[in-house]
Design brief:
- The chain is of the alpha+beta class and 191 residues long.
- Helices cover 21% and strands 32% of the residues.
- The chain contains four helices and seven strands, in the order E-E-H-H-E-E-E-H-E-H-E.
- A hairpin with a 3-residue loop joins strand 4 and strand 5.
- The radius of gyration is 16 Å and the shape is globular.
- The two termini are 28 Å apart.
Length: 191
């Protein structure tokens, strides 16, 4: 079995004041960010595969419909979707964890929307929603920490984008993983 070296970086903010804002696109850009309030395994799986298909997101591919549904219906799990003129461009998934911690579990853009200044806006907006997550969920502790991890299989600018928004590195891990081909979304989609 062939392996590849993968570096994983973990980053965090420990205060809402850490968040560095970004210029909000003007209305003419057609960029909107909307919370997907109705848990939809079909829509969430579409976002997961459309964004992660070319960067080797594999962990949720084997999930059943029921696993997707159960996850999405958990209190404190939110999906925020960026749209450009009504077309999904990318998303961020937030997950409340014990002790006032919120993880940005997934974040990214569909390949055709990368490099168009949508990612910084989505990251800033979604991180602000992580900081006020408890305002929307009765019984959750106020957020005291927002964290995420990214790896060398993700986009080459991922770490820099997080750092520009005020995230600080707190751990780095390098390990060998089985080599896997990106799953799609389908052959030739990014040619």
């Amino acid at each position: 079995m062939r392996t590849t070296t993968v570096t994983t970086w973990s980053l965090e903010q420990t205060s809402s004041a850490d968040l560095v804002p970004v210029q909000v696109p003007d209305a003419a850009s057609g960029i909107r960010i909307v919370r997907s309030e109705v848990p939809s395994p079909e829509f969430s799986r579409f976002l997961y595969t459309a964004v992660g298909g070319d960067v080797t997101w594999l962990d949720r591919l084997p999930w059943s419909y029921e696993q997707w549904r159960a996850h999405l219906e958990r209190p404190g799990v939110e999906t925020w979707v960026a749209y450009e003129h009504g077309t999904p461009a990318g998303y961020m998934e937030l997950e409340a964890q014990p002790g006032g911690t919120v993880e940005i579990v997934y974040f990214g853009l569909i390949a055709a929307f990368r490099g168009r200044r949508i990612g910084g806006h989505l990251l800033a907006y979604g991180t602000a929603r992580a900081w006020d997550l408890a305002d929307r969920w009765e019984g959750l502790e106020p957020t005291r920490r927002v964290w995420l991890h990214t790896c060398s299989l993700d986009g080459e600018h991922a770490v820099a984008n997080y750092e520009k928004r005020g995230f600080r590195l707190f751990a780095t891990k390098t390990e060998e993983q089985p080599e896997a081909a990106p799953p799609g979304p389908w052959p030739g989609a990014h040619a």
